[in-house]
Design goal:
About 35% of the residues lie in helices and about 20% in strands. It has about 425 residues and is of the alpha/beta class. It has two domains: about 170 residues, Creatine Amidinohydrolase, Chain A, domain 1, CATH 3.40.350.10; about 230 residues, Creatine Amidinohydrolase, CATH 3.90.230.10. A hairpin with a 5-residue loop joins strand 2 and strand 3. It is globular.
Length: about 425
């Protein structure tokens, strides 16, 4: 046997699976139940979030923008009638799969195809009888790209399957977290607080946005956090009116506003938090509007409870903004689901705001987690007052993940 093969298939691996086998078995059961309700017989999962949720699969390269010769074709097949899944991958990841997954059935692509396992996967699933009926692909996933997705659809249809969009299955199943997942989010909250505290220490005139970003990332990792799924915006000056801008070498100046948006990450579960800082005392009208804006958090605290109807929170927010003359100065006010995330996005599938009807009749059930954003544009184009926290809905209470860090405009003297 070539030594390379010995390494791939016999080298010892120290397992680093993030959850117990019982946790993963319960997840698979929930996925299969959702598939049955949707009429999907087989679901082929390709997004990093889905692979991780079902098996623990974790790596640093998902081939999302790779050469055309190396399409992103590894994935996991789940069948509605079987309490097991099949993991397909290149043998180059054999050691990785032994380290990071609970897979009991991993099948490696033939060497002559290297990383394009499309035909192999279709043949294996056909032989298993898993390509009869409706086969779901994650059409809304960023991985694989359109070309690879089209290849899978063509190969599965040629084998007799009817390919449908299965994107909603994992997105809906992941909405309600298990106790093990909620524990990760609580740990993520601790990590996020460490990042906010460090930001307060290092934001000063003359310091660059990138320097603050580096210090915050160092604090997050020192607290046990992982790399967040998005670049952390550290924005100063005129850029504070563009909340999705990025940190650069720009140096902060006295009198400016500074915004920081981060996530504490534990086992890929994200807790989002943001705060606004002023380098010196702001103009009175700026301070007054920021104080008025953050008052909404007192109202929100009073209404938060497990099972809170989404519409109730939306209506409360809108009333507050209208009553306090902020409605026409608002940016986006609302929130979205927090949970598993991989680069380049930590925004979850569930979204809510006072103008959206889609999810308004649902509730924040125990075991759910969402962020909540306060965005109000300040007078004279001074910037956007920007505060975010994450709400963790338990069985008996709701935790505001980073409430120990003041929500209002922080003045850096």
């Amino acid at each position: 046997m070539p030594y390379r093969d010995e390494v791939y298939f016999q080298a010892p691996a120290e397992p680093e699976v993030p959850f117990s086998e019982e946790e993963f078995a319960a997840r698979l059961e929930r996925v299969r139940g959702a598939m049955a309700e949707a009429g999907i017989d087989c679901l082929f999962l390709t997004s990093p979030e889905s692979l991780y949720y079902v098996s623990g699969y974790l790596c640093m390269w998902y081939q999302s923008e790779s050469p055309m010769e190396w399409p992103p074709s590894n994935g996991i097949a789940v069948h509605v009638d079987h309490d097991r899944f099949i993991h397909f991958d290149t043998e180059r990841e054999a050691v990785l799969t032994r380290t990071f997954t609970v897979s009991k059935d991993t099948r490696f692509f033939p060497r002559d195809s290297y990383r394009d396992g499309t035909r192999f996967i279709a043949d294996e699933l056909k032989a298993e009888g898993w390509l009869r009926g409706n086969v779901g692909l994650e059409f809304w996933a960023g991985r694989p790209n359109r070309a690879a997705s089209d290849r899978f659809q063509a190969a599965f249809e040629a084998a007799g399957a009817r390919v449908v969009d299965g994107s909603a299955i994992l997105r809906e199943v992941r909405w309600k977290k298990s106790p093990a997942e909620m524990a990760c989010l609580h740990e993520g909250a601790r990590i996020a607080v460490a990042g906010l505290e460090r930001a307060h220490e290092v934001i000063r005139p003359g310091v660059s946005e990138l320097e603050v970003q580096g210090e915050v990332l160092n604090a997050l990792t020192a607290a046990g956090g992982e790399m967040p799924a998005m670049m952390l915006p550290v924005l100063s000056g005129a850029k504070t009116n563009a909340c999705h801008a990025v940190a650069t070498r720009r140096r902060m100046r006295e009198g400016e506003l500074v915004l920081l948006d981060l996530a504490g990450v534990h086992k890929r579960y994200h807790v989002n938090a943001a705060r606004a800082f002023s380098l010196g005392e702001p103009r009175p009208e700026v301070r007054e509007r920021a104080d008025r804006a953050i008052g909404v958090m007192d109202r929100v605290r009073e209404c938060l409870r497990p099972g809170l109807p989404v519409r109730e929170l939306n209506d409360l927010t809108r009333r507050y903004y209208e009553e306090h003359g902020l409605w026409d100065s608002r940016g986006w006010i609302g929130g979205y689901e927090m949970g598993i995330a991989f680069y380049p996005d930590w925004v979850g599938n569930f979204v809510y705001d006072p103008l959206a009807e889609k999810n308004a009749d649902r509730a924040f059930e125990p075991g759910t987690a969402v962020n909540y954003e306060v965005q109000v544009f300040l007078p004279r184009h001074a910037g956007c007052f920007f505060t975010i926290d994450t709400f963790l809905f338990g069985e008996d209470d709701v935790r505001l993940a980073t409430e120990e860090i003041p929500y209002g405009l922080t003045i850096i003297e």
